[in-house]
Amino acid sequence: MPIAFHVLRLVSFQQPASAVASRASSPQSPTASSTYHFYELDVAALDQEWLESKERRREWVDYAEAVRRVSWKQELAQGLMLSSLAPRR
To answer: Which Gene3D superfamilies does this chain map to (predicted)?
Structure first.
């Protein structure tokens, strides 16, 4: 049985190609962009074994640790910072 959850919120943002062009191996057109979607979930139940349980481990961390772990990938960090978990300024 899969994890039981409810989608709480969708976080989306668009990034121009120029922001990722330095990491790309091929040139991109000036109008190209990437759109990222992140789904905030309210987890209601967890199974002890899941489809990838032999390949991945599940770990719950606080917001600061989550930001630290995804900071290697700008798009992931930005999605997390736009989420409802981010501290309000």
So the answer is: Nucleoside Triphosphate Pyrophosphohydrolase (3.90.79.10)
Is residue 21's pLDDT more than 70? Answer: no
CA atoms within 13 Å, Cβ hemisphere of 24: 13
Which residues share a beta bridge with 35?
A: 14
Are 59 and 46 in contact by the 8 Å Cβ rule? The answer is no
Q: What span, in angstroms and rounded, lies between the C-alpha atoms of 22 and 4? A: 39
Helix, coil or strand: residue 88: coil
> Phi and psi at residue 25, in whole multiples of 5°?
-90, -20
pLDDT for position 19: 56
Domain ranges of the chain: 1-14+33-41+57-88
Residue 82 has pLDDT above 90, yes or no: no
The alpha carbon of residue 58 and the mean position of all alpha carbons in its chain are separated, in whole angstroms, by 15
pLDDT at 7: 55
